[in-house]
Amino acid sequence: MMSFDSVRVSVVMPVYNGGAFLREAVASVLSQRDANFELLIRDDGSNDGSVEFLETLRDNPRVKLWSRGENLGIFGNLNFLVSHAAGDIVKILCQDDFFTHDTALQELLRLWENLGDDVAFLRTGHGSDGGSRLNAAELDVLPAIVPPAASSTCFFVFGCIPGNLSNISFRSWVPRMFGAFDQSLPYAGDFDFWSRVGRQRPWALSRVQNVLVRRHEGQASVTLNKQGELLRQLDVVLSRLYADIRPQGVQRFLLRWMASLHYMALHREMALRFYQTTRNVRYMGELRRWFADRPYSFGWVADWLIYGISLGGRLPRAGLAKLIVRGCLKRQPSA
Question: Domain Glycosyltransferase 2-like spans what residues (predicted)?
Answer without folding.
Answer: 10-133
